[in-house]
Amino acid sequence: MEFLNVLVAAAAGFALGAVYYGILANPWMEAANIKRGTDGKPEGGQSPALFAATFALQLVVAGMMRHVFSLSGIDTSGAGLVAGLGVGLFFISPWIAINNLYAGRPLRLTLIDGGYASLACALIGLVLCLF
Fold first, then answer.
1. What are the C-alpha distances in Å from 124 to residues 104, 112, 118, 119?
2. Among 8, 36, 92, 122, which one is most buried in terms of CB atoms within 10 A?
3. Residues 11-39: pLDDT tens digits?
4. Where are the domains of the chain?
5. Which DSSP string corresponds to the chain?
6. What is the C-alpha to C-alpha distance for residues 1 and 79, in angstroms, rounded to an integer?
7. What is the pLDDT of residues 47-65, one digit of tens each?
8. What mean pLDDT is predicted for residues 92-114?
C-alpha cells in the first residue's frame, strides 16, 4: 500500500507542475532565458523522455518524503501538508536559490521554481497522509 500512495503523491506533484508551469510558462521561459521557436514553444521541443525522467524524480521525492514522514510519525493530512510545505520552503527552495545565485539567474526564476517546489511538496505531503 505504501508504494501506491507514493505513486499517487508523485502523480499529484507532477500534475500540479503541468498546471503551474502551464500558467507561468511565459514568465518562466523569459526568466530562464529559454530560446523559443516561431510557435512560442521551447526550441527543440520537449521529449517524452524529459517527462518520464521528471516523473521518476517526483517518485524519488515522494518516496523519501514518505520515509521521513514514517520515521517522524507524520500521519495526518494536516501534518503532511505542513511538513511537505516545510520541505519545499526550507530544503528545496533554498537549494534552488543557491544554484541560481551561482548561475547568475534572476530572482524571478528562483521565485517561480521555488514556488512550485513548495506547493508540490505540500501537495505530496497531503496526499501521502490521505491513505
1. 30, 18, 10, 9
2. 122
3. 999 999 999 999 999 999 999 999 998 88
4. 2-128
5. -HHHHHHHHHHHHHHHHHHHHHHTHHHHHHHTT--B-TTSSBTT---HHHHHHHHHHHHHHHHHHHHHHHHHT--SHHHHHHHHHHHIIIIIHHHHHHHHHHHT--HHHHHHHHHHHHHHHHHHHHHHTT-
6. 20
7. 899 999 999 999 999 999 9
8. 98
